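Researcher: Structure for this, please.
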Amino acid sequence: AHREAILWQRWVRYLGVLLALPVAILFGAAPRDAALLPTLLIATAYIGTVIGTSGWVKRSERGVLHPVLPALLVTADIGVMAAFFYFATGGQVHHRMLLIGLFGVQLSVFYFGRWLGVYATALTAAAYVTMELVAPPFMAGPPVPEQQVALTTLVFVLVSGVVIQVFGSFRERMNELRLFCKLVEDGELTAKLAATKAPHPDDLTLLARSFEAMRDRFAEQIGTD
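Model: Predicted structure, token format:
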């Protein structure tokens, strides 16, 4: 599943950077001559990274996917996003990168698990704080107050934490349900689903209960026959 996610997501990454590049150059606040070269170099390096990792995944199709590969791609995603904001916009709008970063957190935890969602959250927050408080400004302008940076970062971390909890729980229960179906397919009719006893039932909980009821009915018919 991880291998397939990385392969289809590469097209989203290509499209995203090809759309973001002209937007950053044409509509960014920085002078075009100043922003053109760094953004082009960053976009080229990013595309090269995606091509390289995709080739790595294809070559390891029959082997085990390296566990650091998703983290490498997330690092590249956040790096290119932060660089585009740094070179093309002023400090007053850098906080908007956190909105895009939140989308990355959601995809990370949904497809690869909680640990990658936590990593994406930490890296995005660190990139934002570094741009605002550590790196010298690429464009002249009034600095953002430290208190505002701290508050914005805190809100992002809190919202990301909720996203990680919700989507992480969903993914874990989906994995349990997939394993349950595999066991039933192999003839194991005594497996139990913890997902049926979720403290806050949702549609996935109801689906798990339906699968367990089907299993019980199937076992009953086998016993009767």
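Researcher: Any notable elements?
Model: The mean pLDDT is 82. The CA atoms of residues 148 and 196 lie 43 Å apart.
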